[in-house]
Amino acid sequence: MEILIVEDEKEIAQLINNCLTREGFECHIAYDGLSALEKAKIIQPDLIILDLMLPKLDGLEVCSQVRNLGMTKDPYILMLTAKGEEIDRVIGLSTGADDYLVKPFSPRELVARVRALLRRSMRHGGQAQINETRHFTLNLDEHTAIRQLDNGEEEKLDLTALEFNLLVAFVNYPNKVWTRTQLIDKLWGADFFGDERVVDTHIRRLRKKIEPNPAQPSFIKTVVGVGYKFEDN
Ligand code: CA
Asked: Is the pTM value of this prediction over 0.85?
């Protein structure tokens, strides 16, 4: 995933760069509108983070020109604006921007927006297999799981391969009641030999990682006498 950061304030550009590089994105920086267009043509970024007030060519102009470049990948555009700064025009998003962020913003806010946009791009581009419910996004190619928090932020879940596969099974069949035997077949295959209560151990661990309150699970419910089911309504 390549990101082009267009921002004339060098410190802010560097800050965004550091924060997204840390998240594993490949970042490029342009400090004015004209070089932004040049770089966009060469890099063909997935996402452009575009400051509104720029020297040479402002953000709105860059935005509309990018849309007319006929790039192979039509990039997502996240507009940055200072409070009160022509914000109405940006909010209208008649500009061709996909989303906007008002300065000053926190690094977490930025990362959450970027992820949300790129997830959208993957869904449309079909580059990665994504399974999702309201609170969970699982990327089967990258083996990553993200939980959407109710405050709008996102949390990357740190799951073992087994926990990940368990969550995939649940997310693929919301509301399905699973017996322990079915889950074992799914996770270990038919040659599993052992106590099927092992499932309970893994469920308990997974709950600790994904449930806001593991003692009163809101996602992985126990179905007494049968097994488990996953709900995310
Ligand atoms: Ca600026």
From this structure: no
d(CA 56, ligand 1 centre) in Å:
11
Instruction: Give distance in angstroms: CA of 53 to centre of ligand 1.
Output: 4
Question: How many CB atoms sit inside 10 A of residue 163's CB?
Answer: 21
Banded pLDDT at 10 (limits 50, 70, 90): very high
Distance CA 91, CA 86 (A): 9
How close is the Cα of 86 to the center of ligand 1, in Å? 12
pLDDT of residue 216 exceeding 60: yes
Separation of 154 CA from ligand 1 center, angstroms?
27
Return the DSSP state at 176.
Answer: P
Q: How many whole angstroms separate alpha carbon 219 and alpha carbon 135?
A: 9
CB 92 within 8 A of CB 98: no
CA dist 74 to 58, 121, 139, 197, Å? Answer: 20, 9, 22, 50
Residues 65-84: tens digit of each pLDDT: 988 877 767 788 898 988 66
How many whole angstroms from 5 Cα to the centroid of ligand 1? Answer: 12
Q: How many other C-beta atoms lie within 10 A of the C-beta of residue 84?
A: 8
Q: Quote the ligand 1 centre to 153 CA distance (angstroms).
A: 26
Q: Which domains does the chain have, with CATH numbers?
A: 2-123 (3.40.50.2300), 130-230 (1.10.10.10)
* Residue 130 near residue 122, CB atoms below 8 Å: yes
Which residues have C-beta under 5 Å from ligand 1, the single-atom ion? 8, 51, 53
Q: Ligand 1 centre from 72 Cα, in Å?
A: 28
